[in-house]
């Protein structure tokens, strides 16, 4: 038996406009899933979208980290949180 591809499976989801927008959408999805208001199919769709958003956010964070390393000329050092001697 051949698998039927639904329209949500056939088309990739739209990329979020920014990291902040992706994070906000992800928080909203998690809230809806935790509330139990979604049916089985809607939960699966929300889970897939959430996985896409997590992947997008991780990629953005990795790119920003790489840019910071380049800007700092690979001389990033741990932040010294000890109080300065006065």
Description:
There is one protein chain. This protein is mainly alpha-helical. It has a domain at 17-71: Exonuclease VII, small subunit (Helix Hairpins, Orthogonal Bundle), CATH 1.10.287.1040. The chain has three helices and no strands. The protein has helices spanning 7-10, 19-35, 40-71. It is elongated and about 60 Å long.
What brief labels describe this structure?
mainly alpha; Helix Hairpins; single chain; 86 residues; 62% helix
Task: Give a quick rundown of the structure.
The chain has three helices and no strands. By secondary structure, the chain is mainly α.
Q: In the CATH hierarchy, what is the superfamily of the domain at 17-71? A: Exonuclease VII, small subunit
Largest sheet: none
Strand content: under 5%
Just name the CATH architecture of the domain at 17-71.
Orthogonal Bundle
Q: What's the SSE pattern?
A: HHH
Q: How many beta-strand elements?
A: 0
The radius of gyration computed from the alpha-carbon positions, rounded to a whole number of angstroms, is: 20 Å
């Amino acid at each position: 038996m051949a698998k039927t591809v639904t329209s949500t499976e056939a088309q990739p989801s739209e990329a979020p406009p920014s990291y902040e927008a992706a994070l906000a959408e992800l928080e909203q999805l998690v809230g809806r899933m935790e509330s139990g208001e979604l049916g089985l199919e809607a939960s699966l769709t929300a889970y897939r979208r959430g996985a896409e958003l997590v992947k997008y956010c991780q990629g953005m964070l990795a790119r920003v980290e790489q840019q910071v390393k380049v800007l700092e000329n690979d001389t990033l050092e741990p932040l010294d949180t000890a109080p300065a001697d006065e």
